[in-house]
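re: ur question from yesterday

yeah so i grabbed the chain u mentioned. its 279 aa long if i counted rite. heres the sequnce exactly as i have it in my notes:
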Amino acid sequence: MTDEEWAFFEDFNLAIRAPNGRKPANHRLVLDGIFWIARTGSPWRDLPEEFGKCSSVYRQFRRWTLTGLWEEILDALNQSGAAPEALQMVDSTVIRAHHQAAGAKRGTPRQGFGRSRGGFTTKIHLRANAHGLPMRTQITPGQTSDYLGFDLVMADNLPEPKVLLADRGYDADRIRKTMDERDILTQIPMRKTRKMRVGVDHRLYQLRNMVERCFDKLKNARHVAIRYDKTAESFLGFIDITATRLWLRHLSRRPSTLKSQDESPRFAKQLHDSQCGYS
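ran it thru and got these structure tokens back, copy pasting raw so excuse formatting
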């Protein structure tokens, strides 16, 4: 972890104290250990000794996860205005679960496990912005419809887009009506079985590749590419940790690109043409 990353995480981490009131431990070292687990996909017991005791690092990870720290950090980045929000997109991907991930309390469905064509799986639902940065992530059993995942990620507490891109898996009258009520222009290809035909601006729709590339970057973390966690909270925590690091990497490498997407001439022209009904 770089000094810039730690400067960002420090205030969030120190705000959450241990339940016994003890002074904070070396949270930077703990975070480094958590990042190592996320990147390599290794079991906790294989954590190198330089990060501290694996049981201590795991307990701190669970404490931060159950308090909602990772989601809070991701929401703070979304509300910061550091990335464009006018154009957003949603998508989902199915993740294979390791056989040792089964066996958590309350049963597998409540922990986000299911059966799909890929076998024992979990589905990740993602909402991303125009820079391909994650805005909201949720998980469901692998066989869950994209319709349900759409409701989970399109929360009202995030910045609203002007245009929303999605593939034909989200082609439903209910979704289109809900977005119209929120004054959001949807660009969703039609299913072959749709009776009422709806057009799509293909120039705008081409930008949906950003969410596919976002999934590709998230899966560079082996703990996201394959699910090893028994509980839904832990797996979603690792997804949000990886998503936050994508944000920080983007902001540190491309500071000159943080202008609003509304100011982009290409996007503005495409949005104008779509609202005017041009193809």
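noticed a couple things. Residues 170 and 186 are 10 Å apart (CA to CA). also Strands lie at 87-96, 114-116, 119-129, 134-141, 163-165, 185-187.
anyway ttyl
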